[in-house]
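Known limitations

Files may contain more than one protein. Parsers should not assume a single record per file. Below, a two-record file is shown to illustrate correct handling: read the sequence, read the token line, then continue until end of file.
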Amino acid sequence: MYQWKGKKIIMIKSKAIAIIKDIHGVADPEDKLTAIQEIIDMETYNSITKANLIDTLRWMIEEYI
């Protein structure tokens, strides 16, 4: 679920969105962070709800603070 963009590997947007929508799921923490980075770079957030973004923030706080 990755592709090359120039010299770096990026996660496919659909995979990133799926991870964000299930942030407390079984995905590897590194994949979750990569998904967050991909989401940040998106131009629009139409397929991600406010609740998904809040859950993602909660996960980051629980995991890293």
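...continuing to the second record:
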Amino acid sequence: MEHHTEHPSKKHTKRKSTDTANSFLSLFLNCAIAAGLALLLACLMIPLGGALCFATEDPTSPIPAVGLAIRFLSALVGGVLAVRRNRGKVLLSGGLCGLILCLFTALLGMILPPQSRPFSIGISRLLRFAILPISLLGAVIGAKRQKTVRHKRH
């Protein structure tokens, strides 16, 4: 009776590739959760922005600026949450969260009618892709804050 065993290096390679796949899946899920929380934050800030606009003399004029502030603030918070959920990995966490948010706003832009856009299509696309570096900035801020908090505990 012949007994066949795998070479030890093959077992290590299989385990390493499985760990890498699980690690990327975990990274992606954490970034998707952070992006979802950032979108929830944006939804919660919309009524506050509406109240702010309503309090001005001309309620329609600050709407684009308030909308951008909400979009970019939620992207910044999304970056912070992504890097915290992933315990580091700044560029991957912030970039992936920003990419998810960019894709979501692109899909939303396809669904909404063109009359709802306060800017031209080119400016809207540029502002949509500005979410990515803002999310990366949030990840850098979150990583720096996380390191300083750790040092203070010790």
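Parsers that stop after the first record will miss the second one. For reference, the second record is described as follows. The chain has a mean pLDDT of 84.
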